[in-house]
Amino acid sequence: MFFRVCVLSLLVFVVVSAEKKQRQALCLSNDFKCTNGMCIDATWKCDAEEDCSDGADEAGCPTDCSGPNMFKCANTKCIPAQYKCDNDDDCGDKTDEANCPAG
């Protein structure tokens, strides 16, 4: 009985692992493939947040806030421009919430 449980457990592990590898290998056209094989939304590349567990989505990205999708806080921190005026102090100095339209 113990042997059967071990074999069954091993079989389940192999099937799940193979499924996971297959999912990792098949990224959509609007995805970014991380070095470790995981797929993330391509818009998350160079957004100043590590979305790939291996950091591949932030490797080689500009660090001076020069990209059109970046906002430079008064304290020199860079955040994704989409975080500006979202009612959350992402900069840590509230400059991303200054001069926002009322509403």
Automatic annotation (TrEMBL):
InterPro entries: LDL_receptor-like_sf (IPR036055), LDLR-related (IPR051221), LDLR_class-A_CS (IPR023415), LDrepeatLR_classA_rpt (IPR002172). Pfam families: Ldl_recept_a (PF00057). Keywords: Disulfide bond, Glycoprotein, Membrane, Receptor, Repeat, Signal, Transmembrane, Transmembrane helix. Gene3D superfamilies: Low-density Lipoprotein Receptor. It is a single-pass membrane protein. It comes from the Eukaryota. Residues 1-18 form the signal peptide. The keyword Disulfide bond applies. Disulfide bonds join C27-C39, C34-C52, C46-C61, C73-C91, C85-C100. CDD domains: LDLa (cd00112). It is found in: Membrane. SMART domains: LDLa. GO terms for cellular component: plasma membrane; receptor complex. PANTHER family: LOW-DENSITY LIPOPROTEIN RECEPTOR-RELATED PROTEIN 2-RELATED. This is Very low-density lipoprotein receptor-like. The lineage of its organism: Eukaryota, Metazoa, Spiralia, Lophotrochozoa, Mollusca.
